[in-house]
UniProtKB/TrEMBL annotation:
The lineage of its organism: Bacteria, Bacillati, Actinomycetota, Actinomycetes, Micrococcales. Residues 1-26 are annotated as: Disordered. Coiled coil: none annotated. PANTHER family: PRESENILIN-ASSOCIATED RHOMBOID-LIKE PROTEIN, MITOCHONDRIAL (PTHR43731:SF14), RHOMBOID PROTEASE (PTHR43731). It is a multi-pass membrane protein. Keywords: Hydrolase, Membrane, Protease, Transmembrane, Transmembrane helix. The chain crosses the membrane at residues 90-108, 128-154, 166-186, 192-212, 219-239, 245-262, 269-289. Belongs to the peptidase S54 family. Residues 126-259 form the Peptidase S54 rhomboid domain. It comes from the Bacteria. Its main location: membrane. This is Rhomboid family intramembrane serine protease.
Length: 290
């Protein structure tokens, strides 16, 4: 229970005294300068209009409402993500906004792309490019396709996994796509840059397929979408199937980790698993460049 300062003694100019002391009216514990005749139905203390909260019967003071809220067990999804009053897909919207802003900025300052784009030859000296390239796109169609795919699967995964696990899934899938490029591309494309969120999106595709199966939902549609996009990557020239494959495998691994961890180990196990996947990807990168 929060302790409050005693009401000022009766007779002090401009300050009412406590009830029963010199006949002074009751005052609000939070605002001793305010007279409060309405009392909280739970603790019985006076509460001014600012500190009153409507209840089923009468009113409660703001402190009792907060204590009751803390005592209520938070709701969670099947995979352990907390369900709060604000379930907007903040992370998904932020990623889309970053991609759009960088796409527009690329026209204003073309040198920006050169500082963020990834090619295998650049990854050893500036490894941050292996992730930043996932926020760049080659054209408006490329951007719209990837952002549409992200918007289709992102909000669901963000709600089911929670924000920090969703961020880890997206970034590591993007990183996994770049790692696959340097591991599988070969010398003939060592100097060719790759851009786009496709590797990260393929990671989300794989993760949502695992999550749907784990929660007993139909996953056939997303599996068909994955199969079609994998085939497109091999048929249409100019598409980095290596990035798609790397993102797909990374997303599948993280999706299985998040979906099948025991309930008691969800937080610690997820942190350890994310660290392990990141270490494996870094190890592959170092081995290839070595």
């Amino acid at each position: 229970m929060t302790a409050y300062p005693p009401a000022p003694p009766p007779g002090q100019p401009g300050q009412p005294g406590p009830p029963g002391a010199g006949g002074g009216p009751p005052v609000c514990p939070r605002h001793p300068e305010r007279v409060a005749y309405v009392r909280c139905q739970r603790c019985g203390r006076p509460a001014c209009p600012e500190c009153q909260r409507p209840a089923a019967v009468g009113v409660h003071c703001v402190d009792c409402v907060r204590e009751e809220a803390r005592a209520v067990r938070p709701r969670t999804t099947v995979l352990g993500a907390r369900v709060g009053p604000d379930n907007r897909p903040v992370v998904t919207i932020t990623i889309i906004a970053i991609c759009v802003v960088l796409f527009v900025a690329d026209y204003v300052s073309p040198t920006l792309r050169m500082r963020l784009i990834f090619a295998p030859v650049l990854g050893e000296v500036e490894p941050y490019r292996m992730i930043t390239t996932a926020f760049l796109h080659a054209g408006i169609v490329h951007l719209l396709f990837n952002m549409y795919a992200l918007w289709i699967v992102g909000p669901f995964l963000e709600q089911m996994l929670g924000r920090w696990r969703f961020i880890a899934l997206y970034l590591l899938s993007a990183f996994g796509g770049s790692v696959a490029v340097i591991a599988l591309a070969g010398d003939q494309v060592w100097n060719i840059p790759t851009v786009g969120a496709s590797g990260a999106v393929f990671g989300l595709f794989a993760a949502i397929a695992v999550v749907l199966r784990r929660t007993g939902r139909e996953a056939r549609q997303i599996l068909v979408v994955i199969a079609i996009n994998v085939v497109i990557g091999f048929v249409i020239p100019g598409i980095s199937w290596q990035a798609h494959l790397g993102g797909l495998l990374t997303g599948a691994a993280l999706g299985a980790l998040f979906a099948y961890l025991p309930k008691k180990e969800r937080t610690r196990g997820a942190i350890a698993g994310v660290a392990l996947v990141a270490a494996i990807l870094i190890g592959i990168t170092m081995a290839v460049y070595a």
